[in-house]
Design brief:
InterPro entries: DUF1759. It comes from Spodoptera exigua. This is Peptidase A2 domain-containing protein. The chain is mainly alpha-helical. The protein has eight helices and two strands, in the order αααααααββα. The chain is globular and about 60 Å long.
């Protein structure tokens, strides 16, 4: 058991090293192959970490120092406002702590976003991918954190997965947010494009 717990610390150290080296490397080196290799290393380390954690959980008490240090941030299995808020708050706290040490984390964004997305449930991951403004560019941490902050508020309302017919007759699954107090109906630009809808100019006011 002690060896597994020690290995957890080693894995965290290895992940930190990847982040530090990523921050040091020049932008010219950060091509697609470079990013893919680093993400692959992170995936392997995190998979080992989760396997070790599962075995430790089967034998160690929750009062053990390993758990009290909050070393492990469990994945979200199902969309939950409280779980998303917990992930958001913990991430914000950790980032602020790192900044207070004088560490510049601006170059860490792709790695941090990748790790955080792996902790999200499937539905929230899908919502985030669809909400990205520039999906072809490397993700920004601020964009993800803003999404989580908004998504946390939206989860207080009812959401549904619905099958919607596209202009070509096929069906796709979209998420709908139901607000009984709303006086208007809105659709995202992403949904319009996926459905292949035609636009018509219309002047209307949107109450705030």
């Amino acid at each position: 058991m002690e060896s597994r717990i020690a290995r957890q610390s080693e894995i965290i150290s290895s992940i930190t090293t990847i982040k530090v080296n990523f921050n040091k490397d020049s932008d010219s080196r950060k091509n697609a192959e470079y990013i893919k290799k680093r993400l692959g290393a992170l995936d392997a380390l995190w998979e080992e970490f989760e396997q070790n954690h599962s075995r430790i959980s089967d034998h160690a008490s929750e009062a053990d120092e390993y758990f009290r240090l909050n070393t492990y941030q469990p994945n979200i299995q199902k969309q939950s406002s409280s779980e998303i808020k917990r992930l958001y708050d913990t991430t914000t706290e950790c980032i602020h702590a790192i900044h207070n040490l004088g560490v510049n984390t601006n170059a860490w964004d792709p790695l941090l976003v990748h790790l955080l997305c792996k902790k999200l449930d499937t539905d929230t991951q899908t919502d985030y991918r669809e909400a990205r403004v520039e999906p072809r560019k490397l993700p920004k941490l601020d964009e993800l954190m803003t999404f989580l902050e908004v998504d946390d508020e939206e989860l207080l309302l009812t959401t549904l997965s619905i099958n919607v017919r596209c202009s070509d007759g096929t069906y796709i699954t979209l998420r709908a947010l139901l607000d009984q107090g709303s006086q208007i109906s809105l659709i995202s630009e992403n949904a319009v494009q996926r459905l292949g809808l035609q636009r018509r100019r219309y002047n209307a006011s949107c109450p705030v």
